[in-house]
């Protein structure tokens, strides 16, 4: 029976599930008998551990790797780059620096995702483990920055000041460092604190599961709750709330696609592509709509003239 923190089912049934890269190396070192499909050599193996469907490594069996998600990640980087530029231009907007940091962290996750899920590198290689660990740390820091943006929006502390930015960056660095270290420890068994799992076939790690699954979900819920309060109760607005609702809906749909349709698309395409590219499109769209929500409740520039609401 699968226990809390076990990744075995996810690594088997969810194609391109990023954190499986960490357990592949662990299994190779501790108990390679866990691999039931001995006909798939390590040099051409796709993501997952005993996956029901996976895209072979690029260059093997005519595979182009996870080409659909590679293209979408690249296009998303251009789109997010434009959002960062647009955010930076809104000099007077509340939370400009904090939102720019959130967008920058999301931008960083895209090339990391492109590499960790693109089937470029050999499974179990040190390079893939290292990039996956950094990816995990960036994701944990990303969701802290999302939550911090909501806290800044409450104006408990003035945005863009040391009282706001020092805790913002310090906690982001802590999340990044802790998650990255835990990921390295799981994959390389640096200590016995976070790895290996017992039994090895369970692919278990409660800290990794909390930081990459539970923590993001919790921050999204808290962020949505705080912004609902700010928009409806403090600003007494309705229109911006629809942006936040749409952004939340897009994020939820991205997760449903990733965990429910991913395997269906993989099998339907004969392991040529999977549903990860759809999830990336929806996640990037959610971030874009989040920017529109922020834009709708902030001022673009300082106005010295008297303001009269219409």
From TrEMBL:
<feature type="transmembrane region" description="Helical">
    <location>
        <begin position="166"/>
        <end position="188"/>
    </location>
</feature>
<keyword id="KW-0812">Transmembrane</keyword>
<dbReference type="GO" id="GO:0051082">
    <property type="term" value="F:unfolded protein binding"/>
</dbReference>
<keyword id="KW-0472">Membrane</keyword>
<feature type="transmembrane region" description="Helical">
    <location>
        <begin position="273"/>
        <end position="294"/>
    </location>
</feature>
<feature type="transmembrane region" description="Helical">
    <location>
        <begin position="99"/>
        <end position="121"/>
    </location>
</feature>
<feature type="transmembrane region" description="Helical">
    <location>
        <begin position="67"/>
        <end position="87"/>
    </location>
</feature>
<protein>
    <submittedName>
        <fullName>Chitin synthase III catalytic subunit</fullName>
    </submittedName>
</protein>
<dbReference type="InterPro" id="IPR022057">
    <property type="entry name" value="Chs7"/>
</dbReference>
<dbReference type="GO" id="GO:0006457">
    <property type="term" value="P:protein folding"/>
</dbReference>
<feature type="transmembrane region" description="Helical">
    <location>
        <begin position="241"/>
        <end position="261"/>
    </location>
</feature>
<feature type="transmembrane region" description="Helical">
    <location>
        <begin position="128"/>
        <end position="146"/>
    </location>
</feature>
<dbReference type="Pfam" id="PF12271">
    <property type="entry name" value="Chs7"/>
</dbReference>
<dbReference type="GO" id="GO:0005789">
    <property type="term" value="C:endoplasmic reticulum membrane"/>
</dbReference>
<feature type="transmembrane region" description="Helical">
    <location>
        <begin position="208"/>
        <end position="235"/>
    </location>
</feature>
<keyword id="KW-1133">Transmembrane helix</keyword>
